[in-house]
Amino acid sequence: MSTHQGPRRTALVVHAHPEPSSFSAAQARAAVTVLEATGYDVEYLDLYAARWAPVLDRDEFGPVDGPFKPQREQWDAFRAGTLAEDVRESLAAVFRADLLVLSFPLWWFSVPAILKGWLDRVFAMGAVSGGDAGVFETAALRGRRAVLLTTTGGPAAAFTSEGAFGGVDEFLFPINRGVLEFVGYDALEPIVTFGPAHLDDAARRAALDAVRTAVAALDARPLASTNRSRRSADTH
Hints:
Elements: E1 9-15, H1 23-37, E2 40-46, H2 70-80, H3 85-96, E3 99-105, H4 113-122, E4 145-151, H5 168-181, E5 186-187, E6 191-193, H6 201-216, H7 227-234
Parallel strand pairs: 1-2, 1-3, 3-4, 4-5, 4-6
Helix pairs in contact: 1-6
């Protein structure tokens, strides 16, 4: 039961992990529960369970005259209302949502291929940015928020500027700035659980509690470390 008394908002949680019993899946479910308790209507898309087709290619468009230019085909299909059905459904869910949560394990310091494919196909040219839409502050999803909910293979100490891998914000910058902010979202500071595979049961429970606390406080969560947040800080 929701304890939220204000107008209901909508969240879309897009989850990308192939193992339903993974910590990544557990924290995605925890996020859904907390969002519902704090007044959100939540749509949940498990990309692996849905067997999402990640490859953007010419087969999902009509006959192509000349070289295949994916963004041009997306723009034309969006304007004509002929995007593939799975893309149309996800795009509609994106536009229904005040909040987008991308849930995934950090693989090769980025998102899994299936999630990258969802972004490639759903964030279509002309629909969310570019074409008839703008980019960054003028893009179609401006005024909405997005947050990354992720896990790493290594410990927190490895993901600092002095650590073996470097700061985690450096790896997540291309997603926050080059994807989320590019299409208009206010990208919030990511929610990261470091090295859950190396935690004992008690530490995992504590980590899930930390996720719940972070999701419950999203309204007060700062912006991710990006060009936009730095400019915002410079003006205050």
